[in-house]
Amino acid sequence: MDNFAHMKPFILFGSSILIIVILISAGAFINKNNEIPEKHVEVVLRDIGHQFLLSAKDSSSRVLPVKKLNSTTYQVSFQNDVGFISDTLINIVQRTFQKNELANDYIVNLRNCEQKETVLAFEINGKTGDLTPCRGRKLEVGCYVIEIDLLKENKFNFLWLLLLIIPLSFAGFYMKDKFRKKETKESIFDSTDYIQLGNFQFYTSNNVLKCEHKTIMLSEKETKALKIFAENINQIVEREKLMKEIWEDEGIVVISRNVDVLVSKLRKKLSDDNSFKFINVHGRGYKFIIE
């Protein structure tokens, strides 16, 4: 027993080193597998160019080969001149990037071919906030190229922070953290700060719906949507209101389809309770009814 007690510090140190090695190997493996293939990037950018031409009512001219200007910047150009409204390019790029999960943060510059001047630019950035100036402007027919800079996420510091924290805290705080999580989970339902929806208590600050024998976890956007509906029971909630309060107030530009998808998710999560109904009011929005 004395020998074992004497060896405990060395066992803990060895275990910490082993955890660090495993984490480094796993991090390298994950980063390698998360790299987006160059061909996939090219296909997605060509699709953006194709949609851009279609929006300009051009279904015959070609999207020229995508050029890679540097390690993160790509250029999309066209066979013929085009004209369009600035919002068209912003919406096409956002929609295509979200669909293909190509990048979360990026900068787009639209330049004319002759003077190579920037005539339109916007940035989508989850850290610093989105910048989409020059909306609603109509650009005359001309020769344009689209330059897209895919901003890389720097995860190096976060990884090393994990490597430092995990080995040092693994032995001392594992059980304490486990009990704290259990205690926090139970304390959610001790609060009286909830909205009563039928037989459910809706804890908006915890993204939870709960009744006696059922607990439903909600995403942040689902919570926002359900809170809006709960405040407007039996009333029509306009699509524009949902889009503004759930996305646009945070600087995110979405299309009407995002509202339909979000309501569909809420329907599915509440499908076991027939008293909850979301009624689609054509051309306006949705009505939330509790029977």
Describe the structure.
There is one protein chain. This protein is of the alpha+beta class. The chain contains seven helices and 14 strands. The protein has helices at residues 2-34, 38-55, 86-100, 156-187, 220-230, 239-246, 256-269, and strands at 67-68, 73-77, 82-85, 106-112, 118-124, 138-142, 144-150, 195-197, 200-203, 208-210, 215-217, 236-238, 276-281, 285-290. A hairpin with a 2-residue loop joins strand 8 (195-197) and strand 9 (200-203). Helix 1 packs across helix 4 (156-187), helix 2 (38-55) packs antiparallel against helix 3 and helix 5 packs across helix 7 (256-269). The radius of gyration is 26 Å and the shape is flat. The N and C termini lie far apart (67 Å). The mean pLDDT is 80.
Low-confidence segments: none
Q: With helices defined by DSSP (H or I, 4 residues minimum), what is the helix count?
A: 7
How big a fraction of the residues is strand? 15-25%
Question: Structural class, from secondary structure content?
Answer: alpha+beta
Mean pLDDT: 80
* N-to-C span: 67 Å
Overall geometry: flat
Rg value: 26 Å
Number of strands: 14
Q: Order of strands across the biggest sheet?
A: 1-2-7-4-5
Helix share of residues?
40-55%
Describe the sheet with the most strands: 5 strands, antiparallel
Q: Helix and strand string, N-terminal first?
A: HHEEEHEEEEHEEEEHEHHEE
